[in-house]
Amino acid sequence: MKNTIDASGKTHSALSRDLVILSGCFLFAFMGAGAMQQFLVTNIAEKTGKSDAQCSWILAMVYFAGVFWRIYSAHTIRFLGMYKAVVLGLCTYTFFMLCVVLFSNYWLLLIAAFIWGWGAAAVWITSPTQLLQTTSSKRYGLASGIFYSSVFIGQGAGVMILGSLSPNQKFQQVLLIAVAISLVGNVISLFLPKRQISRENPPKITNVFGALKTVKSWEFVFIQIAASFGFGLLLGSFGTFAKDLGKPDMVHWITISFYIARLLASWVVGGLSDWMGRDKVLRYMFLGAAIGLGVAVFSKSLAALSIAAAMLGLQSGTVPTVITAMVGDSTDEHRRHLAFAALSLLPNFGVGFTIVGGQYLRLLLGGFSRTFIIYASIFSLCALLTIDIGRRAEEKL
What we know:
The chain is built from 14 helices and 2 strands. It has 397 residues and is an all-alpha fold.
């Protein structure tokens, strides 16, 4: 195991060892546990005997807990150190899947989801921080694109692999395969270099919220919330939509367009945003998502849902990649962990809210078409908002 390394000795390359190992462990974590999110709500409902709406709270708890842990993560990360935070955080992904294998008690699974929420918060603050710390400032976009591509490749491949197994294998067996895949990521994480990152001492809650004092920071938050609504709808409702259309075994074919589009976007938008401007890339992707959902409103077919999923995927692949690069542009390195914690608070809530809310909106509005109109309107507003973000490109958070 490597000794602790001072991150001030920055590697001026997009392909630092940190990036390669982080990309590897996230690839397998999301090929296993991360991909299983797509199938959890309907299958846990069958396992526990609860309704889809009730079981959507279990998956949503991961994201609601993430809001809580994003606030207090500065304290837990300071206690554990970045290395242990990443390693243990990724272990919670595997831990939750094991709990679903072993238990059918609704409340125990809610507790396990809360623990997973801590792990997700820990890895999604420490990993981008370490990534930026070991990358040249001129390569933030490219490095972010490579990192997020590994996540998207893993999750997309996992959705297809696990989804293809589901019709022929019991849910328990598919879960065990997901656990085995996730364990590979856990092993890879052990080889991550240990870094010492200069941080404000001691971390305070007021410091975390202090990162949201500027107009620009709240614009970033709004942009990320909007993207999270689409992802929450995909995770929480598309499986039920497929079941409503009489095609419950087709959910992986409907949603794979999301993961492919998200992957393609992450490959392109990182370097593209370095070249043509971060605000312009965001604007075009939000407009595309609004148009895609508008098309889906006029049809309730599997093809229309797949198109909508693809447009959400383009947006979802763009926003985290570009926002990570923008944080690098707009913050000092010793405050980046606070910026990531602050900027990810409400988006986590947005995913959790939509996982649950999508089920009830579907019932309230008589289907998903009117729900899509609401999201398309929000995405159009975000496209307009990116104009002001571009004007504030030189401002600090």
